[in-house]
Amino acid sequence: MSSSNTIPASVCDPDIIEGSATADRIHGMREACRVAAVVLDRMAAAVKPGVTTYDLDRLGKACMDELGAESACYGYSGQKNLFPAYTCISVNEEVVHGIGSLDKVINDGDLVSLDVVTRYRGYIGDNAKTVIAGDAANDATRRLVKVTEEALMLGIEQARPGNRVGDISYAIQHWVEKHGFNVIREYVGHGVGLEMHEHPQIPNYGKRRTGPVIVSGMTLAIEPMVLMGDRNVRLLPDGWTVVSRDGKPAAHFEHTVLVTNKGAEVLTRVA
Which residues pair with 90 in a beta bridge? Predict the structure, then answer.
């Protein structure tokens, strides 16, 4: 779940962790992220024409209950109100933070972006992916999804000790714009640990060798949010759903990663 606010220091930032607590907390993050990945995987498998976004949200909640986790999204405090769903489900021009509804039926060719944030034994797992429903999507839409996922992986490659956040940001922006798409500026990736949104913020745009230094032990949620059209977005009256101003589709991918001395370890993968 993307951030737009100032956020506190990451739980896995070595500046605030000492001794054996580091290993315990990283273990906790691995477990929480594994749970989040399983929930996302099950929801993605259920995306098909005729399903409502409410159905998908309730499936996510049922999976969390089965695995002993809670939704970190439900009841999250925003600028206007509390988030009313268990997961974020955004369709087509909805970029992020869409709310599941019985009135929103998925059609053949729709882009469905699923964002799952779970709390498990005190730790947060955060991941997202965009799924194409059915077979009717055109080539441009499929390319948008492909480029967004590739941008995520290129950003993750830059999450290594000695680099800076700007190296992640630049890698994502450069790849996206090279392919004729745009990243949004108002919402960003973030550190994650005991809270959903922690330091540092990770924009999807920026310059190399700028921003906070990346160090081993950090846990980061990296999440390109990419628009087919121009980069302008607006917030719907529900206070949560962010949509493209021009009505063109968007894609969103996210992993939580652990920075190690050997590079980034993706924590939100189903084993």
Answer: 113
Q: Are 85 and 73 in contact (CB under 8 A)?
A: yes
HSE of 115, CA atoms in CB hemisphere, 13 A: 31
pLDDT tens track for 183-206: 999 999 999 999 999 999 999 999
Give just the sign of the alpha carbon dihedral 239, 45, 220, 222: negative
Sorted by where each begins, the domain ranges of the chain are: 14-266
pLDDT of residue 12: 41
State the fold for domain 14-266: Creatine Amidinohydrolase (3.90.230)
Please provide residue 138's backbone torsions phi and psi, each rounded to the nearest 5 degrees: -85, 175
- Which one-letter amino acid corresponds to residue 246? D
The pLDDT confidence band at residue 5, using thresholds 50, 70 and 90, is very low
* pLDDT, position 74: 98
- Burial group, residue 158, by CB count within 10 angstroms (0-12, 13-18, 19+): buried
- Of the listed ranges 11-20, 144-153, 247-256, the least confidently predicted one is 11-20
DSSP of 93-151, one letter per residue?
Answer: TEEE-----TT-B--TT-EEEEEEEEEETTEEEEEEEEEE-SS---HHHHHHHHHHHHH
pLDDT at 180 over 50: yes
- Average pLDDT, stretch 62-85? 96
User: What distance in Å separates the CA atoms of residue 32 and residue 50, rounded to the nearest whole number?
Assistant: 31
